Every structure is written in C-alpha cells, then in structure tokens.
Amino acid sequence: MLTYPNIDPVALSLGAFKIHWYGLTYLLGFAAAWWLGRRRSSNPSSPIIKEQMEDLLFYCALGVVLGGRIGYILFYNFGAFLHDPLILFQVWKGGMAFHGGLIGVLLAMAIYARKLDTTFFHVADFVAPLVPIGLLSGRIGNFINAELWGGPTASAIGMRVACDHNGNTEALCARIGTSADGLYSLPVHASQLYEAALEGVLLFSLLWLVSASPRPRMAVSGLFLLGYGLFRFIVEFVRMPDEHIGYLAFNWLTMGQLLSLPMLLFGLLLLGLAYRSKEKIA
User: Fold this and answer.
1) Less Cβ crowding at N or C end of the chain, within 10 Å?
2) 281 found inside a domain
C-alpha cells in the first residue's frame, strides 16, 4: 500500500500572492509543446515553420484555457452556473475540463489554419503529438492538488491519503470513509497518475512514432482522438465521478466516458478515411 506524500499545492507564497503548482504545470505543458513544435517544424514538409510556433501556441493556449473553463462549467457545473454566473470567472477555485479544452483548441486550429491559408488537418496533424505532454503535466497538477481520485481499492497500488492535508483530502475522506485509525482515507486508486501514464506518456510515444514516419493525412489526428478517448474511457471505470453528478447510467457510465465516446467514434472514422487514401506524407 502507498501513502500520498502530502505535497503543498502552493509552490511559492509572497504574502497574499500565491503561485500554485497546478498553474506551473500548465506553463510547463505549454513550454514543452513550444519546444517540441520547434523541433517538428524543422522537417521540410512541416506546415508550421519555427517562427510561427509562438503564434500557434498563443492560439492553442487561449483555446485550452477558455475552452477548458467554459467546458467545465457546461459539462460538470452548469447548475451552479445558473445559480451564480460569476463562478465562470472564479478560476482560482479550480475547474477545467479536457473535452472543453479540446473544443477550444479545435476552434483555435481552424482559425489559425485559415490565417495560414492551409487546411485544418495540416495544422491538426502537426499539433496532435504536442498535446499529450500538456496532459501529462496537467494530471501531475491534479495529483499535487490531491483531486480527481479513483475509488477505493484493496490492490497493492492503492494509495491512502491523510485526511487533514487540505480541503480536497478532507472531502475524499468524508466521501469514502477512513481507515481504522481515522487519520487516513481508505486506499484509493491514484487515477491521476494512471491518466498521466496513459494519456501522457503512452499516447505521446504512439503519436510521436506515427508522426515521424510516412503516413496519410488525418492519421495522426485520428490516432489522437482514438487513443485519448480509449484511455480516458478505461480510467473512468476506477475514477470516481464528480459527487454532485454521480453515474449517469448503469451504475458505471460517467460524464467523462459519455464525452469520450464521440472522440472514439470520430477517431475511428478519421483513421478509416486516412488509410483509404494511398497518398503518404513525410
């Protein structure tokens, strides 16, 4: 059995001004995407040149932040938004949704592709391998915040969490109960780390390998949608749903799984269309 290391979510405190690790993980993800994008742009067939990476990153970062926040409100907290619309701007309280961020990035890529007078999938195939590093960083941020835990488990990789660490761990202990000493939660799945491994490390490796070899247009985008949708759907079986939403059906279907289903289907569609084409690009 493992024990959560009780990481302080505040990286730096300067009086009333606090810098949280969660925000720093987002910055790290954007920085890594910029660096990897500049490496990819050195390929002669790249639709993006090095000098354009800053603009592309700016567009996508806006899509991630705005889409992620709006998506969280619409998908996971719409009732509270109707009661108090100002919660949309209360970003310091947390709340970002990947599927909302994805929609935001898709719109950003469409706008940027039009600016470059190129096709959407030229840009999307370029951007897709850069995304998993940001997902990895974000899931590490969730782990530091002690949020988005999986359900109780008796397995050897179960993690017990100190109930008095912060508000998130207090809520976890209240929701699932505590161990015999009452100081720690029952062991739970560290689903944030599962997602970091699957959506971050494994998905990045797959996309980077495929994008580095000749392949048809849309294949990289399709693989990203299929891979993320599949990995997220699987992890949702052990990740606890938001308490105020619960399971949507069958005592197992979560909002995350419902939102991932279109990604799975559209990813398969794109891969099918891509490999029907005999034309390969470098």
Assistant:
1) C
2) no
